[in-house]
Specification:
0% strand, mainly alpha
Length: 73
């Protein structure tokens, strides 16, 4: 019996071949796989962009929050 990390690695390595087999089975399957990949890729890119922007904001100007209104001073 294989260990869980070994099975996980093997399934990750087998996955592209299975996706190709499914995509070649039917043209509609290929379109659906492509649309799914584009949606996941776009969502990941937006999340990564927002995360990097937040991290850069903390590093570049750590104390640049909003100041209190003038009457509060």
């Amino acid at each position: 019996m294989q260990s869980l990390p070994t099975q996980l690695l093997q399934s990750i390595l087998d996955m592209p071949g299975k996706f190709i087999d499914i995509a070649l089975f039917d043209p509609l399957s290929a379109v659906l796989i492509l649309i799914g990949a584009l949606l996941v890729g776009a969502a990941s890119a937006v999340f990564g962009y927002l995360s990097l922007g937040a991290a850069a904001s903390l590093v570049v100007r750590p104390g640049s929050g909003r100041s209190p209104p003038p009457e509060a001073k």
